[in-house]
Amino acid sequence: MKKVTSIKTRITIWYTTLMFVLIVVVLSLVGGLSYQLSIDGIEKDVVLQVTQVTEKLSKMHRDVFELVDSKEEFKNVSIYEANGKYIVGQYIYDVANISFEEGLPRRESIDGKEYIVYDTKTPTPPGMRGGFWIRGVESVNSTMLLGRSAIIIMLILIPLILLLTALGGYYITKRAFRPVNNIIKTANSISAQKDISRRIEISPHSKEDELHHLSVTLNKMLDKIENLIMQEKQFTSDASHELRTPISVILAQGEYLLDIAEDEKEKELAQTIVDKAKQISKLVSRLLLLARIDQHRQKFNKEKVDLGVLIDIAVDSMRELSSQKEIFLFSNVSEGLMVDADETLLLSAITNLVSNGIKYGNKAGHVVISASECGDKTEIVVEDNGMGIAEEHIDKIWTRFYRVDDVRNDEYGSSGLGLAMVKSIVELHGGEITVKSTPGHGTQFRILL
What we know:
Helix content: 55-70%
Radius of gyration: 49 Å
Structural class: alpha+beta
Number of helices: 12
Largest sheet: 5 strands, antiparallel
Distance between the termini: 34 Å
Number of strands: 12
Mean pLDDT: 80
Shape: rod-shaped
Strand content: 15-25%
């Protein structure tokens, strides 16, 4: 299963990763540049000291022994004879044996210690043959130690900076995506409560950014959808009302023709008119019921109902149809099981489920209706061992006028409204209905009230 990561989390990860790369690059550049500048500073300082000593010595015309006797002190500078013998100045044993090399300052490493060394050779002063060397030496260990300390500090600070960056980024992203959460919340609410009148909350102080315009656009779209649905519901209600009178007239005339029919052909024609009129009348009644439920105009007389008695009535009303189909009906209800419901509507729902079980059952099959307590709810189960429903149709059977097999449903006189009506009645009671089915083995409808 693909792991789902929210956009807020992904943006935070990208932002934090980018900040990590930038911090590492910037600190590396700044650290490297600072270190190099420190080394350059040390080199310039050594060269400057050697130059100053060289200039000072060039102005002296004393014998070298007089120079030594003067005990002149030099910071980081030592003077050596041409053969390398130490004369005066700062004597560092670590670099005393390094060969003299006139030129640019250079790095020397001895016993793990780093030095900047700069040598220059002076002209031969009076009383000296071969001249002498002036050497400037300065340790860079302190600079390296400072660099290491800076690296350690960076390693400590980077995780802290990244943590603060991630928290700050997530907080900012969360605030920025607050309108998206409102959109999701509203969509879920509409889906769960089937209340198309809900709208996305838009703060009057919100900035008019892309998400604000998206919320406004979605609200306008919901307005149009609600208007279209209301028009459809109103049309269904009005059309159903208008059809009731002519259908009643057709049914009455058909029954009259059936009574006065003189031969079998006339009776057959009259019976067809009566049957079709009854079928249309049943369809119109269901449409009216659904329209009234949709418009919250359906009368709902909630009272204590004995499920045992109600299911017995449903079974008795289906006896004739079950006999024709050679289907056995069984009921199993806990004694004295009561439920708060509208007796007429609940009876209509149960009867419809039993009727479906009979219509789509196999010869010599069975339909079982049971009811029992299920925790703090009441469970009603209608189960058959008929032809069943294929998996691809399970989620669609609640759709109005949806029929799995048009030919077979025409044979059984099904309009595709029965299960939609059952679902609406159950939800009107605050309950839920589910279905399990295996093609060729049967179907189970489960109502929880």
